[in-house]
Specification:
Number of helices: 8
Bound molecules: adenosine-5'-diphosphate, magnesium ion
Strand content: 35-45%
Structural class: alpha+beta
Shape: elongated
Number of domains: 2
Largest sheet: 6 strands, mixed
CATH class of the largest domain: Alpha Beta
CATH topology of the largest domain: Rossmann fold
CATH architecture of the largest domain: 3-Layer(aba) Sandwich
Order of helices and strands: EEEHEEEHHHEHEHEEHHEEEEEEEEEE
Helix content: 10-25%
Length: about 350
């Protein structure tokens, strides 16, 4: 199913939680809805679910306007952070519950529940009650329950937030697998950029209810539409600083970072991802302030003029505190942003 949000807006008393959001959620894709806490992700999801009525704008499921259609009639599956399983029911009863509600015959309901349980790999846990399951298993039950009605749209609101780090990674891969297997259009809400990058076909980045960018994970990472997106995505974070373009040269803290760039003279904001630095004999020279080993990576801190920066190398590089490092920045990996608006001016 294709889903279209058109100028979707939700105002509460004194906040505009979602502001003129226009988005096309493509058929069978997993769309990550990403942004900091309070940016309007859940509000958007609740409007898609029919749990909140938009102040303005429309929602279409394929050609059908569902803006005023009630939740039960939208054919959606919902999964929340806190599982929301029925504690007194077994896993089997939890999964069949939506079908029994729809008056599907008991045998048929059971058969479909078993299929779903197999799909999410909890087929051996059907007789247990929620409290006898781990968080990851409970979330699988919740996903099975959401899918058993064969909805046209699956909505997941921070489904991994209650899980510990390792289980979060495992479960997100599971969600990805299940989503591809079922082939269901899915919206996955998260404030965790790594999570969004790792499982989404496309990511919608929101801030203060406004859509900043909607593109593939590669694109939002490589070509962020503005400074906010650049800073929100990527760990370790992008290094932000300022500089000037003068006579075709990009100069930062007295160091010429680029020559022959086709841009008029002006002040610019500069973003450099830590992995964009590399060792270069003819590069600019900086003293290494400190070095941090994090397993596969080596974080190297240095000052460029007044600006503290971090570069990332593979941890087999030999770099020590106090030594002078000669660095270059990979071609096309310096991001420039407008001083006032923060909008992207492209890469050099
Ligand atoms: N029922 C409500 N009444 C008033 N304000 C709300 C309500 N729900 C959400 N908000 C506000 O709307 C904004 C977006 O909230 P929400 O969609 O929950 O953000 P997110 O899920 O991205 O953290 C926040 O400023 C929040 O305080
Ligand atoms: Mg939320």
């Amino acid at each position: 199913m294709n889903v279209y949000l058109q100028q979707l807006t939700k105002k509460f008393a004194n906040v505009t939680a979602v502001n003129k959001l226009t988005l096309h959620l493509e058929d069978k894709k997993l769309i990550g809805l990403l942004g900091p806490s309070g940016c309007g992700k859940s509000t958007t999801l609740f409007m898609l679910a029919g749990l909140l009525e938009p102040t303005e704008g429309k929602i279409l499921f394929d050609e059908k306007d569902v803006t005023k259609v009630e939740t039960e009639k939208r054919g959606i599956g919902l999964v929340f952070q806190n599982y929301a399983l029925y504690p007194h029911m077994t896993v089997m009863e939890n999964i069949t519950f939506p079908l029994i509600n729809l008056k599907v015959k008991k045998e048929e309901a059971k058969k479909r529940a078993m299929e779903m349980a197999e799909l999410v790999q909890i087929g051996d846990l059907l007789k247990r009650r929620p409290k006898e399951l781990s968080g990851g298993q409970q979330q699988r039950v919740a996903i099975a329950r959401a899918l058993v009605k064969q909805p046209g749209l699956l909505l997941l609101d921070e489904p991994l937030s209650n899980l510990d780090a390792r289980l979060r990674i495992e479960t997100r891969e599971e969600i990805r697998r299940i989503q591809k297997e079922v082939g269901i259009t899915t919206v996955f809400v998260t404030h965790d950029q790594e999570e969004a990058l790792s499982i989404s076909d496309k990511i919608a980045v929101l801030d203060k209810g406004v859509l900043l960018q909607y593109d593939t994970p590669q694109e939002v990472y490589k070509n962020p539409a503005n400074e906010f997106v650049a800073k929100f995505l990527g760990t370790p974070a992008i290094v932000m600083t300022e500089g000037i373009v003068t006579e075709g040269r990009l100069v930062c803290q007295g160091v010429t970072l680029r020559e022959n760039i086709g841009m008029e003279n002006k002040r610019v904001r500069i973003g450099i991802r830590p992995e964009a630095f590399y060792r270069k004999d003819t590069g600019f020279e900086v003293p290494v302030q400190s070095v941090e080993m994090t397993g596969k990576d080596l974080s190297v801190y240095f000052h460029l003029g007044q600006e503290r920066m971090r570069a990332i190398f593979f941890s087999d590089e030999r770099i020590t505190q106090g030594e002078n490092l000669k660095l270059g920045i990979k071609t096309d990996q310096i991001l420039l942003f407008d001083m006032d608006s923060g909008s992207s001016l492209g890469r050099v």
